[in-house]
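Hi U.,

Before I forget, here's the chain from the pilot set. I'm dumping it here mostly so it's searchable later in email.
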Amino acid sequence: MFSNFLDNQQFYTECTEHFLVVQIFLKMLRAYYNHVRSFENTLVTKFFGLHCVKLAGANQKKVRFVIMGNLFCSDHFIHRRFDLKGSSLGRTTDKPQTEIDEYTILKDLDLNFIFRLQKHWYQEFQRQVDKDCDFLEQENIMDYSLLVGVHFRDKRVIMTEGSFDSDSSRGSSPHLSPHLSRGDTDPNRLSKIKLGSNMPTKAELTIRKSDCEPQLIGEPTGELYDVILYFGIIDILQDYDISKKLEHAYKSFQYDPTSISAVDPKQYSRRFKDFVYKAFQEDKVDI
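Structure:
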C-alpha cells in the first residue's frame, strides 16, 4: 500500500493491491454512507471514490485506490503530527530527538500535550467520538487512529533540539513563547471553524515521570500555548479478522494484553475513547 498527498491538497490518494481492503470497504459502504449523512461533523475519514486500474504490460496487474479527504488541507503550517490509538506497545517514534521534524508522525507515548477545548466544542467532540466509535464497533473495525495536526499560532515559537521530549529525565521544556488568545473574533475565520478543522484552542504541556510505567498522558505543567488543531479518525478499513486475532493471542503471551493495539473492536473502542477523553479535555477557564 502506498499513499500520496500534500498538506495543501484537498484530496488524499491511497493505493493498494490487497483486495481484502476493498472488500471491507464495500461491505461497510452502505452503513458508512448512512453514518456520514446522519452526522455532518463525523470525524471518520471522508471517502470520495474507490477506483481500479489495470496496468499495461504482460501481467496486467490491477491496482485499486481510494480517494479521501486530506485532514491537513489548510493554509496553516502543521508543526506537529500525532497518530493516537490509546495503546502503549511500540507507540513511540523510532527517530532520535534530533531528527524529529514537522513531518514526523509522533505516537501515543510521544504526546506531551493536553488539548483544552472550549466547553461547546468539547461537548460536541465527545458526542461525535461516541457516535463514530459506535459505528466502527458495529462494523467490526479496529486499529484506527486519531490523527492530530497542531499549528502553533505564535510566530515567536522557536522549536529547538529536544523541545518535544516530554520525559523529565531526558529533555527540557519546549522553548515556546505562550500566546493565549480567547478565541478569534474575525468573522471570516470563525466561519471556517468546524469540529476537527481549523479549531483554535489551547495546548497544555505535560511531562511524564521517569520512575514509573509508561504513561499515556503525562502530568500537566500549567504551560499553555495557543494552537489551531486539525484532527480526524483514520485507518478505518481494518476489521478484526483471523490475522488480528492471532496477533492478539501471540502478543498477549509476551506483553500486557491491554497495551497491544490488536484487540477486539469493543475493547478497542472503549480504550480509544478513554484515551482521547484524557488527551482532549474541557477548558475550565471561563471565556
